[in-house]
């Protein structure tokens, strides 16, 4: 294994101007190859994938069995349009996935990514309401902060002003309730009481909006990009289900980030035996080998929609045989390699190591998460969670300092609704070993030392 060498961008050999553009002008090294939890650039420098890309590469990079399964599929057929043909990989994958879903969520609709899965869920919910005589229901309540995707429909239920406010005039305004960030509350309530209080905010919102107008509630069972692995108190989940049932509202679990074993159970909601009506998945189910997303829906919703003439929705690449062959092999590998169990065990280790670091670096506070989705906040005061000033760009500096030390960390600054602050997520591939967790923690400690020195933050030595 090549030792990590600095990724200072000033060391980059000159490259021609790029015709590509993404979010910023930021340039990164050219990737060459990847294996396990590591990526190498064309200069031979190695990087630990501490966030599995964007919490995607669950079974690790370069898995031979997945690659071979895809090659075999490519030799047969890579595309057959779903209105012309069914295909075995899609059938088989849907059958396996249905077995992993809770309750009667055994109707699977494939898409190519997370935003498409969320769009599909919102549209299925709406169509179900229309065909069952509830056409007044259209509002989808979501949480603030939250992240549900980048398309207009998924942005409408995303709680992050940094991403939504420019597009506000083009987006249908949807109601939100506060995400259950109970770990930050400074009151005399127990965590369980806080969980109920946060859940009850859903009922208050439903009543304020008019229950007959509310279609669904969408939430990430364990938080992702916006709340960095937020885990609600246990009491939250049953109360949310109870409120949805009481008012005839559909419960959508967005498991795009938490699904496919990431949190140490196949679904994040499985930690609480949740019974949502719709589950959205992506990221880990394709594990970076092919663009793949899915919606799993209750039979109770799908039947009346199909009976009434069909689901008025679909994408060209839906159920693509190559993506589904990749998804099928990923599912096999998830089981063969014991990824879910390893995520639980290595997640415990990583979380306890991060808790130890938060004692040493008090600007790291609120360590949380399950399995290999571990998060924390970067704060000015660990008790009050007062945010660091925006000018410090703590999130970007954390990313860059870790990057220079050979590790990818996922970090964001959230803004809006009286909420502001930096957080980060550690989410390596689910095949990580204890020794590799140690490697990540050593780089992170070094990174936090550098961050403290640069931003003048306290360190307990
Ligand atoms: N939903 C959740 C919970 C996500 O974390 C994401 C992406 O981060 C999405 C939806 C959107 O997925 P995609 O970027 O694949 O469209």
Secondary-structure map:
Elements: E1 31-35, E2 38-41, E3 46-48, H1 52-55, H2 64-76, H3 88-100, E4 107-111, H4 114-131, E5 139-144, H5 152-156, H6 161-164, E6 176-178, H7 191-209, E7 214-219, H8 236-247, E8 250-254, E9 278-281, E10 293-297, H9 299-307, H10 321-336, H11 339-360, E11 364-370, E12 373-381, E13 386-387, H12 394-404, E14 410-416, E15 419-426, H13 434-455
Parallel strand pairs: 5-6, 5-7, 7-8, 8-9
Antiparallel strand pairs: 1-2, 2-3, 4-10, 9-10, 11-12, 12-13, 12-15, 14-15
Helix pairs in contact: 2-10, 3-10, 4-9, 7-8, 11-13, 12-13
This protein binds pyridoxal-5'-phosphate (PLP).
Pyridoxal-5'-phosphate (PLP) binds at residues 54, 113-115, 118, 147-150, 220, 224-225, 254, 256-257, 282.
Which ranges are low-confidence, i.e. pLDDT below 50, for 5 or more consecutive residues?
A: none
The CA-CA distance between the termini, in Å, is: 32 Å
Fourth CATH level, the homologous superfamily of the largest domain:
Type I PLP-dependent aspartate aminotransferase-like (Major domain)
Radius of gyration: 22 Å
Helix content: 25-40%
Q: What is CATH's topology name of the largest domain?
A: Aspartate Aminotransferase, domain 2
Number of strands: 15
Structural class: alpha/beta
Mean pLDDT: 95
CATH architectural type of the largest domain: 3-Layer(aba) Sandwich
What is the domain tally? 2
Tally of separate helices: 13
Give the class-level CATH name of the largest domain. Alpha Beta
Strand order of the largest sheet: 4-10-9-8-7-5-6
Largest sheet: 7 strands, mixed
Shape, please? globular
- Beta content comes to 15-25%
**H/E order of the elements?**
EEEHHHEHEHHEHEHEEEHHHEEEHEEH
């Amino acid at each position: 294994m090549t030792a990590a060498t600095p990724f200072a961008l000033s060391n980059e050999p000159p490259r021609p101007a790029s015709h590509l553009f993404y979010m910023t002008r930021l340039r990164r090294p050219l990737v060459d190859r990847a294996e396990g939890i590591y990526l190498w650039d064309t200069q031979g420098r190695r990087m630990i994938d501490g966030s599995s890309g964007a919490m995607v590469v669950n079974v690790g990079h370069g898995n031979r069995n997945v690659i071979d399964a895809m090659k075999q599929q490519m030799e047969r057929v890579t595309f057959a349009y779903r209105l012309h043909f069914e295909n075995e990989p899609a059938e088989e994958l849907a059958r396996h996935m249905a077995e992993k879903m809770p309750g009667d969520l055994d109707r699977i609709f494939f898409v190519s990514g997370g935003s498409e899965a969320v769009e599909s869920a919102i549209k299925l919910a709406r169509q179900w309401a229309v065909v069952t005589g509830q056409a007044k229901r259209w509002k989808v309540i979501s949480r603030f902060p939250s992240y549900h995707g980048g398309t207009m429909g998924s942005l409408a239920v995303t709680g992050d002003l940094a991403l939504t406010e420019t597009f506000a005039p083009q987006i249908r305004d949807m109601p939100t309730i506060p995400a259950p960030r109970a770990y930050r509350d400074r009151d005399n309530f127990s965590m369980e009481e806080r969980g109920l209080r946060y859940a009850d905010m859903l009922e208050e919102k439903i009543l304020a909006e008019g229950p007959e107008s509310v279609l669904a509630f969408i939430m990430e069972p364990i938080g992702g990009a916006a709340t960095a692995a937020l885990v609600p108190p246990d009491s939250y989940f049953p109360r949310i289900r109870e409120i949805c049932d009481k008012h005839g509202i559909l419960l959508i679990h967005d498991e795009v980030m938490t699904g496919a074993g990431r949190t140490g159970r196949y679904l994040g909601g499985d930690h609480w035996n949740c019974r949502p009506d719709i589950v959205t998945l992506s990221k880990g189910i394709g594990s970076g080998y092919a663009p793949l997303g899915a919606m799993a829906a209750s039979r109770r919703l799908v039947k009346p929609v199909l009976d009434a003439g069909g689901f008025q929705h679909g994408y060209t690449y839906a159920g693509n045989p190559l993506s589904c062959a990749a998804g099928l092999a990923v599912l096999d590998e998830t089981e063969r390699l014991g990824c879910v169990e390893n995520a639980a065990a290595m997640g415990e280790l990583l979380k306890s190591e991060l808790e130890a670091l938060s004692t040493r670096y008090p600007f790291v506070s609120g360590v949380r998460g399950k399995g290999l989705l571990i998060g924390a906040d970067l704060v000015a005061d660990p008790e009050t969670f007062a945010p660091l000033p925006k000018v410090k760009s703590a999130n970007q500096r954390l990313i860059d300092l870790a990057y220079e030390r050979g590790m990818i960390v996922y970090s964001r600054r959230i803004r809006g609704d009286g909420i502001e602050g930096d957080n980060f997520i550690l989410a390596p591939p689910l095949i990580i070993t204890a020794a590799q967790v140690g490697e990540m923690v050593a780089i992170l400690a070094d990174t936090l030392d550098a961050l403290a020195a640069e931003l003048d933050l306290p360190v307990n030595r």
